[in-house]
Every structure is written in C-alpha cells, then in structure tokens.
Design brief:
- With 204 residues, this protein is mainly α.
- The chain is 42% helix and 8% strand.
- The protein contains nine helices and six strands.
- It has a two-stranded parallel ribbon.
- The longest helix is centred in the C-terminal third of the chain and has 18 residues.
C-alpha cells in the first residue's frame, strides 16, 4: 500500500480513495469493536496517525481513509514499544499529548536476558506449536536448552522465536528428530544489540 498504509489498516478506507481501493475496507479499529486491540512498536508510528489515535481515545470517533463521515467504536487499546517514548517526545517524533494519554497505566516486561528461566517455557511452547503445524515430532535436548540460556537475546522473545524456527526448519531439512547443542554452537544467535546507546541518539 501507500505511505498512508497504517492509517488505512487501522481505520479502514472507502472505495476509490486510493488506486487499489476497489471496494470499501474495514480497518482494525472497526474489527476490534467491543474488544481489545494490541498495537506494537507505537514509537515508530507517524505523527498524523498518532493524532488520529489520540482523537479516537478522547472521543471514541474515527474516520475511514478518504471519508469525512465519523464512525464510532468501543475498543480497548494496548500499546507496546521497546523505545524510550519520553526521548521521542523531546525529539518531536512523538506527540506529548498522545504520550500523556497512553502512559497512565504502564506494564514493564523485563528483557529476556533478565528472565532466562522463561526460555525453557518459551522453547517448549514454540516447539509444540511448530510440531502441531507441521504434523511432525521434534524435540530439544537438555544441553541445547542450556545453550539457549547462555545468550542475552537482545531482540527478546521475537528474536528467540525466529531463531528457534530456523533451527527447527534446519532439523527438518536434515531429517533430525531433535535440536541439539551443536546446531546452536555452529550457528549461534546474534548476541549483541543493534544500538550501543539510545536507539535514536544519532538523530539529535
């Protein structure tokens, strides 16, 4: 889609409001009416979309892309971010009013490196889902589990999940029944952060 794609995905669109709009489209806000919608990486959201979300939070109204008629929805919004929103406000990349509106109730989840006991739980859960999807039975050896816990996983759960999926596919390709320690040692995960300092400090 075009640069307005997030606006479109959240609030929907009307027919012929952009090139590929062959019919009206329902956005995530409308689909979540009466329920909860989780929006991740809120710190990367464009200012114009922040403004629309702030208006929706304050008044409960929104408009589809290309439409002037307001619509109403009752949605609980939960936001996720791994960026420092206060820092983004100082850089004028995040609306102060939007920040004040969403910061009232904050749940901080420690990074995976501070809760390595969760790695075994996550690994077993991911493997179970992969086995169900592929209709096979792969397992992880105890030494491999211990090897997982040696890394800091700077990309947190998402990085671990993607890395484990790659190991899983490799094991399947090699017709192995287990993910073993040697597979991890030979292809270790990224164990460094992309950002040595604040991720947006270079923009100052």
């Amino acid at each position: 889609l075009r640069r307005e794609s997030l606006d479109i995905q959240l609030f929907g669109w009307v027919k012929e409001s952009f090139t590929d709009a062959k019919a009206d489209g329902v956005g995530a806000i409308e689909e979540a009416d009466g329920g909860t919608l989780f929006l991740d990486e809120i710190g990367r959201m464009e200012i114009e979309v922040q403004k629309k979300l702030l208006k929706f939070l304050d008044k409960g109204y929104y408009t589809r892309y290309g439409e002037s008629k307001p619509r109403q929805a009752n949605v609980r919004l939960i936001f996720g971010t791994n960026l420092d929103l206060e820092y983004l406000v100082k850089l004028e990349l995040f609306l102060p009013d939007f920040y004040e509106r969403i910061v009232q109730q904050v749940l901080t989840i420690p990074p995976l490196r501070e809760r390595k006991e969760d790695i075994i739980i996550l690994a077993n859960s991911f493997i179970e889902k992969l086995n169900d999807y592929h209709h096979v039975k792969l397992s992880i050896t105890d030494p491999a589990m211990a090897q997982f816990q040696k890394y800091d996983w700077p990309g947190n759960v998402r990085q671990f999940k993607n890395y484990l999926e790659n190991l899983y596919n490799l094991a399947k390709w090699e017709q192995k029944s287990t993910i073993v320690e040697e597979m991890i040692i030979e292809n270790p995960p990224r164990n460094y952060s992309f950002y040595e300092v604040n991720p947006l400090e270079h923009l100052e």
